[in-house]
Write a structure and sequence with these properties.
The chain is of the alpha+beta class. It folds into two domains: 133 residues, FAD/NAD(P)-binding domain (3-Layer(bba) Sandwich), CATH 3.50.50; 122 residues, Alpha-Beta Plaits (2-Layer Sandwich), CATH 3.30.70. It contains five helices and 15 strands. The strands form four sheets. Strands 1, 7, 8, 9, 10, 13 and 14 form a seven-stranded antiparallel beta sheet that branches. A three-stranded antiparallel beta sheet has the order 2-3-4. It binds flavin-adenine dinucleotide and iron/sulfur cluster. The site of flavin-adenine dinucleotide has 17 residues, from strand 2, helix 2 and helix 5.
């Protein structure tokens, strides 16, 4: 199998061997975080309203005019000539619907993941950077990687599928992630999300799980079991070409969406780098428009 090391957004010089905290966020500043951009923007004069929940987009004369936002139980109107929704694959379609600008139910992809785990007798593990190496079968829409989990997450996965016999086997467990590219379907509603997998998606998951089990068996694992599937990257709910144009603008002038919801097709890949690129591209284009307006 074409297994290879995966690029990580980690500064190796600051990363600590034997650390298990990666999934929770890095306390040592080794892992890249989008917060770095926010800090830079605030240094340049941006105002960050933390713990603020956007309720809807304000539209005046057919254009976006700002947002209605709840902060500490109080509702305010924040006015702006340009609004960029970045509430994620579930949040952005909900906000569009709450603003009367999108459908009540938007189909989406979820990139479902299953963890496959087995015990081996000769390791003292459980503390590693997860997804350090993997395999992507693009045509098949299946990706595999190692997936060392923190103990509480491992125990939750074992308990979820009734494997109480494995609850205390964390340090002796090898875990693998199986992720698939699912079809766009189901729906994100105002307060719910339904992603019942299609038969083709279930077949892909079963195929990937079979591969992971075979690898674990080759590694000498026993008591192999798998978690239920969960959504890794919900997206594709406000797709380019349907909900937004190629510049990420909705049909309401001045209103943009920039997050995983704009991904136009079934995905099945880690989306962060793509979303960063989309954000940088939209930011540059809005800044250029602003400069041109200023010059005029
Ligand atoms: C455990 C886990 C591991 C992952 N690992 C990887 C990985 O290794 N590589 C990778 O590329 N991707 C990974 N992902 C996926 C990646 O984190 C997401 O796909 C990505 O963050 C999506 O970005 P986004 O901008 O679309 O949405 P988000 O990052 O979800 O941002 C949306 C933000 O909007 C906020 N929000 C929502 N509604 C409102 C509202 N009404 N008002 C105000 N704020 C609101 C939310 O609180 C959230 O902060 C992982 C995801 C998970 C859960
Ligand atoms: S393993 Fe992850 S959390 Fe731990 S130091 Fe390295 S980057 Fe940070």
């Amino acid at each position: 199998m074409a297994w290879r090391k995966l690029d990580k957004m980690i500064r190796p010089a600051s990363c600590r061997a034997g650390c298990w905290r990666c999934v929770y966020g890095c306390p040592y500043g080794a892992k890249w975080t989008a917060r770095d951009f926010i800090i830079e923007a605030c240094r340049d004069g941006a105002h960050l309203a933390d713990r603020a929940r956007v309720l809807r987009v304000l539209v005046e004369n057919g254009r976006a005019a700002g947002v209605e936002v709840e902060v500490q139980g109080k509702v305010h109107a924040v006015r702006a000539p340009v609004v960029v929704l970045a509430a994620g694959g579930l949040g952005s379609p909900r906000l569009l619907h709450a603003s009367g600008l999108g459908p009540r139910c938007s189909p989406f992809f979820s990139d479902p993941v299953v963890a496959v785990m087995g015990s081996v007798d000769d390791i003292d593990g459980g503390a590693e950077v997860p997804m350090a190496a993997g395999l992507s079968l693009h045509e098949e829409g299946i990706a595999l990687a190692d997936l060392t989990l923190p103990q509480p997450m491992y125990a939750a996965f074992a308990a979820q599928v009734g494997r109480v016999d494995r609850l205390f086997a964390h340090k002796r467990t090898l875990s693998m992630m199986v992720k698939i590219r699912d079809e766009i379907g189901g729906g994100v509603g105002p307060r719910w999300a339904d992603k019942t997998l299609a038969d083709s998606d279930r077949k892909k998951l079963a195929h990937g799980v079979g591969m992971a089990k075979a690898i674990l068996r080759e590694a000498g694992a026993h008591h192999i079991f798998k978690s239920w599937h969960f959504a890794a990257h919900p997206g594709g709910s406000v797709r380019i070409g349907e909900g937004v144009d190629a510049d990420l603008q909705t049909s309401t002038p001045g209103l943009y969406v920039c997050d995983a919801s704009v991904i136009p097709e079934p995905w099945g890949l880690p989306p962060t780098l793509t979303l960063l690129c989309l954000g940088k591209r939209l930011g540059s284009s809005l800044a250029a428009t602003r400069r041109a307006e200023g010059a005029a």
